[in-house]
Amino acid sequence: MNEHLIDETEHETYADEVDAPVIEVRRNGLLSGAIGGVAAVVGAAYVVRAAGGGSMLDWLLFAVMAAIAVGHLLACWDARTPLFVADERGVRLRTARTWRG
């Protein structure tokens, strides 16, 4: 008859068992895409100017704008994956293509 008794301690809810919210930190893909697009347009303007008889400074500015455009457009592509996740499994941080934590 004792085997049918319910143990009340198994059904108690503790404060640490409450579902915690999931926190994700991501890049802003729209902002990165906009900055990359503007840098690409400005870089294209500098390469046209440099090819038409511009100075070495025009080529340097083209190279800088091209690097900014490539960097931000790659960040726009990478914005789909979170950089930081904190949930019930723990805290994870992404560096390049690997996760730590």
Short description, anyone?
By secondary structure, the chain is of the alpha+beta class.
Task: Characterise this structure.
- It is built from two helices and four strands; from the N terminus they run E-H-H-E-E-E.
- Strands 1-2-3-4 form a four-stranded antiparallel β-sheet, with no helix packed on it.
- Helix 1 (29-51) runs antiparallel to helix 2.
- By secondary structure, it is α+β, with helices and mostly antiparallel strands.
Q: What percentage of amino acids are in beta strands? A: 15-25%
Helical amount among residues, as a percent range? 40-55%
Kindly report the spatial arrangement of strands forming the biggest sheet.
Answer: 1-2-3-4
Instruction: Sketch the major β-sheet.
Output: 4 strands, antiparallel
Q: Return Rg in Å.
A: 26 Å
Determine the mean pLDDT: 82
Please count the beta strands (DSSP E, at least 2 residues each): 4
Regarding quaternary structure, what we see is: single chain
Would you list the SSEs in sequence order as H and E?
A: EHHEEE
In DSSP terms (H or I, runs of 4 or more residues), the helix count works out at 2
What low-confidence regions span 5 or more consecutive residues with pLDDT below 50? none
Q: Which structural class fits the helix and strand makeup?
A: alpha+beta
C-alpha termini separation: 49 Å
What is the molecular shape? elongated
